[in-house]
Write a structure and sequence with these properties.
Chain lengths: 112, 116
């Protein structure tokens, strides 16, 4: 059973701080990695994709990937109350069909 | 922008009813997926389709069936709804292939189904 593990949180950070969200996965053959943001009662929204080891930056978001350690993270700089949501880590299933395996999510709370 | 739409945001049905959930995407995506999301259990894949008339079981297919007669439309069918199928149902779509970006999944707004 391929798994994706995330700390459920809540992760509480003050406004303006850096929020660090972490994810580990078990499928060594995975080649694609995603972060989704999900507000309460809404559907997941794709915010970052990463395919190569290292860092990928997009605005206030940075995704970090280390395939050797089977670890992917998301950093949110200058956190805002509007960033308060559940963040889902998803990993491409190496067995084909472009399936994704989702973690259960980390709830982030940014307080003023 | 990719747009995935679902036929209903909220739905209330009675035990034993046959329920149809519709999903439509407008980006010519080959792959379409149905998930359910429950508190504490995360997203669980019910069924997916990689082409018209093609379908594959996901992790929890029992009690569900699907139909994909046209590329843009993927339907989830609850043959005889039960209370344990009360959940948020999410449809997603993606391109197919191994190149970067082709397996990004885009979600519809979801259907919150209550079975009484």
């Amino acid at each position: 059973q391929k798994e994706v593990e995330q700390n459920s949180g809540p992760l509480s950070v003050p406004e303006g701080a850096i929020a660090s969200l972490n994810c580990t996965y078990s499928d060594r053959g995975s080649q694609s990695f995603f972060w989704y943001r999900q507000y309460s009662g809404k559907s997941p929204e794709l915010i970052m994709s990463i395919y190569s080891n290292g860092d990928k930056e997009d605005g206030r978001f940075t995704a970090q990937l280390n395939k050797a350690s089977q670890y992917v993270s998301l950093l949110i700089r200058d956190s805002q109350p509007s960033d308060s949501a559940t963040y889902l880590c998803a990993v491409g299933f190496s067995g084909g069909y472009n399936k994704l395996i989702f973690g259960a999510g980390t709830r982030l709370a940014v307080h003023p | 922008d990719v747009k995935v739409t679902q036929s209903s945001r909220y739905l209330v049905k009675r035990t034993g009813e046959k329920v149809f959930l519709e999903c439509v995407q407008d980006m010519d995506h080959e792959n379409m997926f149905w998930y359910r999301q429950d508190p504490g259990l995360g997203l669980r894949l019910i069924y997916f389709s990689y082409d018209v008339k093609m379908k594959e079981k996901g992790d929890i297919p029992e009690g569900y069936s699907v139909s994909r007669e046209k590329k843009e439309r993927f339907s989830l069918i609850l043959e005889s709804a039960s209370t344990n199928q009360t959940s948020m149902y999410l449809c997603a779509s993606s391109l197919s292939g191994r190149e970067a970006g082709r397996d990004e999944q885009f979600f519809g707004p979801g259907t919150r189904l209550t079975v009484l």
